[in-house]
Amino acid sequence: MFIQTEATPNPLTLKFMPGVPVLESGTAFFTNNEDAAISPLAVELFKTGGVTAIFLGSDFITVTKDENSGWDELKAPLLTSIMDFFVAKKPVMLSSKKINVEAGNADESELVKQIRELIDTRVRPAVAQDGGDIIFHNFSDGIVQLELHGSCSGCPSSTITLKNGIENMLKHYIPEVIAVEAI
To answer: DSSP secondary-structure letter at 35?
Structure first.
C-alpha cells in the first residue's frame, strides 16, 4: 500500500491519501480521543503524541498537530499507523453518529437551499482538496454561519477564504447574504 501525503494551507495539518475509501459518505472531525472513540482509526492516530485533531473525508485523512511537534518526527509513525490499519481491514467507524452528512430538510427556505447548493457544489470540493471541509450551520439576519473542519479549522488563511472567497461568492449569487462567519 502506498500512502501519499500532501501539505495543506494550514502548516499544522497534513493530508494523507491512502488510495482507498476512508468514509463511504460524509465526514468526521475529532478534536480529542474521547470523541474519537467511535473511530478506531482516529483512536489509533491520536496515540501519536502531538496530534490534536483528526478529520476523515471520503478518500483522505487530515491530521493536525500541536505547534511544538514537527512533521519530521510525526509523519513516519502516522504513515505506519494508517498503513497497518487499512492492511488489517479494520472498520474506520463503529457508529455513524459523528459523521457529518450535509443534507437539507424539507422545510428549509429556498434561500437556505440556494446557499447550501452553492456551498456543496463550489466551496466544499475546493476545500476538500486542501484536506478540510466547510459545513453549513445556519442562515439568520443575512449572516451565514459555517463550521470549519480539518485543515480549515485554525488555518491562518481561513478568514481570508471566508471573507474574500465564500462571502463574496454568496453575496454575488444571493444578495440577501450580508456576511459569512465561522462558528
So the answer is: G
- The pTM of this model reads 0.77
CA 156 – CA 35 distance, rounded (Å): 25
Pick the CATH number of 110-182 from 3.40.980.10, 3.30.300.130, 3.40.50.300, 3.40.50.11440: 3.30.300.130
Mean pLDDT, 10 residues at a time, the chain of 183 residues: 89 94 89 91 95 93 94 96 95 74 64 85 78 84 86 72 82 89 85
**Per-position DSSP letters for 106-117, written without gaps between them:** TT--HHHHHHHH
Residues 45/78, Cβ–Cβ less than 8 Å:
yes
Strands of the 13-17 sheet, one edge to the other? 4-7, 13-17, 61-65, 51-56, 28-30
- 3-class DSSP state for residue 65? strand
The answer to whether residues 144 and 170 touch, using CB atoms and an 8 Å cutoff, is yes
Evaluate whether the domain defined by 4-87 bears CATH number 3.30.1370.70: yes
Instruction: Name the strand (E) or helix (H) holding 169.
Output: helix 168-173
CA distance 58 to 166: 22
Q: Residue 99 in contact with residue 38, Cβ under 8 Å?
A: no
What are the φ/ψ torsions at residue 57 (nearest 5 degrees)? -115, -170
Contact 99, 164 (CB under 8 A): no
